[in-house]
Amino acid sequence: xxxxxxxxxxxxxxxxxVKDGTVDLVITSPPYPMVQMWDGAFSSMSxxxxxxxxxxxxxxxxxxxxxxxxxxxxxxxxTLRPGGxxxxxVGDAARKIGNSFxxxxxxxxxxxxxxxxxxxxxxMIIWRKTTNKPNKFMGSGMLPPNAYVTLExxxxxxxxxxxxxxxxxxxxxxxxxxxxxxxxxxxVWSDIRGTFQSLxxxxxxxxxxxxxxxxxxxxxxxxxxxDTILDPFLGTGTxxxxxxxxxxxxxxxxxxxxxxxxxxxxxxxxxxxxxxIVWSRKKAHKKFVEAREEDGKKLKYxxxxxxxxxxxxxxxxxxxxxxxxVEATKTGYEAHYEIxxxxxxxxxxx
Length: 350
Ligand SMILES: C[S@@+](CC[C@H](N)C(=O)[O-])C[C@H]1O[C@@H](n2cnc3c(N)ncnc32)[C@H](O)[C@@H]1O
Prior knowledge:
Layout: E1 2-8, E2 23-28, H1 39-45, H2 47-54, H3 58-79, E3 80-90, E4 93-97, E5 100-104, H4 106-116, E6 120-128, E7 138-139, E8 147-148, E9 153-160, H5 178-184, E10 188-189, H6 213-222, E11 228-231, H7 238-246, E12 249-253, H8 259-268, H9 270-294, E13 301-303, E14 308-310, E15 323-328, E16 332-337, H10 346-349
Parallel strand pairs: 1-12, 2-3, 2-11, 6-10, 11-12
Antiparallel strand pairs: 1-16, 3-9, 4-5, 6-9, 7-8, 13-14, 15-16
Helix pairs in contact: 1-2, 2-3, 3-4, 6-7, 7-9
Bound molecules: S-adenosylmethionine.
């Protein structure tokens, strides 16, 4: 098996290198409107953003920033196949502009766009990030009524394009474990910490990156092996890494050319990362099986491909892809996987 990962260092408001209806799943995290670290990026794409920020007109700046994102969402719509899925990780922004402190609800503004484009809005996930910083509170301290609730969560918005999709291969190979289904399809994720965002390479100090576990889960939840995943705001290449680890193809756009060095560096470690994530899933499943059996609850089925007992028939043919080699190509990267199921089990890893 082989997967292809294209990376274009260009503006995703025009993704002409991607043909209509060729993407199966979009996973992305845009620059968040009204979060200060992205003011420069939005201003470089829109004079209206620059002018409204300079005039301290918060609501107008918010609208102008989303007008920029809307152009990318329209390209996302063109490239996505009917029945395809879009997952967008975004946080709201709370900010003081001039004398006015207020919340800028990015998530609801993006929902409006997708509803307008005719997409079905599916139940969303709240990603609850843990923070213990004592200085996280804003406003008037212990004096009512002017203290503000802190933002400690982000959203993962999920939309489906109308239409039905077909599959070239049986979906069983891409199944996930029963106990993963129970955790992943819960609407609050509180087990994933934010990621370290300082950048040693590249042109900026902070990455704005999400933890790889976010796109990895979403890819496994909403696509099958061999599908193509698009990220129009690729940043440090986290979605590419997750696609490699999941045996899916990918296309990414990033307009900051300085990120190439960062992405190349991450892809040079992709084999190790992807093996680690697959190994940790197998290990967690083994623990789950042992705990159940200790409780006297036998698992009825066996997966010959995974060499483990499983809860349901649907898991019997699942086959977690094991990366053998990731190499650079003219347009990005290519990943090769172990062809034969080897004895790469928990026991031989020890
Ligand atoms: C929130 S970051 C994405 C971080 C990414 N998920 C990661 O894990 O590294 C948004 C990225 O989109 C890029 N960007 C913003 N506008 C863009 C555009 N119109 N076209 C391409 N890239 C863009 C920014 O340079 C930034 O790297």
